[in-house]
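Async update (no meeting this week)

Hi team, since we skipped the sync, here's where things stand on the single-chain job. The sequence we agreed to prioritize is pasted below, unchanged from the tracker. I ran it this morning and attached the output directly underneath so nobody has to dig for it. Comments welcome in thread, and please keep replies under the output.
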Amino acid sequence: MSERIKTLVLDADGAGWSYVAVDTVLRGLLRSRIDVSMLPHRFRSNRWGRRLLGPRYGHLSYILDWREALCAAPELEVEVCNINNLLDYRRRREALRHYPLVIILHSAAGDDLGLLKATTHWLEDRRGTLVVFLGNEYDRMEEKIAFLRSVGADYLCSQLPLEAARWVYAECLPTQVLSMPHALNPRLYAPNHAIPRAVDIGFCGDLYFPFIGDTERTTLTTFFQRHGGHLGLRTEFRLNARLDRSEWADFLRRCRGTIGAESGSYYLDRRGRMVAEAKAYCRRHPRASFEEIFERFFRVPHLPYVSGKAISSRHFEAIGTKTCQLLLEGPFNGILHPGEHYIPIKKDLSDVREAVRLFQDEGTCARIVERAYEYVMDQHTYRHRVQSLIRAVCEGVRARHASGPGRCTHSPRLQI
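Output:
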């Protein structure tokens, strides 16, 4: 490429019409540039202050990490539009026809697709390549697949393992599915030897809802919370706590190790109906036990399905801070390997004490931490992911040019 690709990134700072109203008035009509970082600490830590001034996804590091990586890419000339600011989004309507590349991020296509669905015709009129990153690829899948088909997305960037993603999105052809798992932001998630690691095993996060179809991570977390002290471990657990990126990075730096598992659901059908039915049942019966939900919806699945279990951004963040991970065994998108990049634990926890013994061996723990860090820095940072995306987009454009004109034509600015 002889020129940078002019790229429009569609982002959303929070999901829901209340945020749309706030951002349209505050950012659009009043043109305010005040954000929560400019306020005194007592206001920054206030939940309502964050809800008003953002960033509302500060506790979901990957959303900010992806946006920053795209903006930093030397191959791209990026403009970011927060679609919650309706005035700014509307101003982009005509320009959408001229950007060679349009990227919709997880924040805009995750928890709420209402705005994107209302402006589908804007995206249909584009002339450039459309790339969509979907968030939460187990929830509202029917709506997300319908959106992909309606706009004729050129590329879908999926966090799922590639074969699972191709199966789930088979009806979206000719949209090309790209494997685009999360990665490491090495600027933010880095070791700090000045911070003492006073905690052996630390955990901070939500306990998964039972409607995903398993309680594996919850069972693991509960075990270490109850028995960590008896195993000679100094532990710290912050259940259902929400930390922003810098707080989360500091928490990891204080811990020698952390625990976890793959994210997502084992029961992912092409419309996400099994999880959706279980979720609706949980709303109607909030006291229902996991056993009841599992028997009703997952014991005998009534639809074809694949596992949607996948590697999480949290796994990379721990690696970046050189925090050792004790993880339930899994494929992790073929990226992390047991005994090499993490200490494995069987899903029935039958070998958990052996895993703790390995963790307490400082030499073994240090080798795993260093090996994982060097490997991820070499192949799995967000810079690597963006480079992979740019290569795929350019190859796709080259193939379309070779086969003759299609529905979308591309601006001469995208030179290959």
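Quick observations from my side:
Residues 12 and 108 are 5 Å apart (CA to CA).
The longest strand covers residues 5-11.
Reply here if anything looks off.
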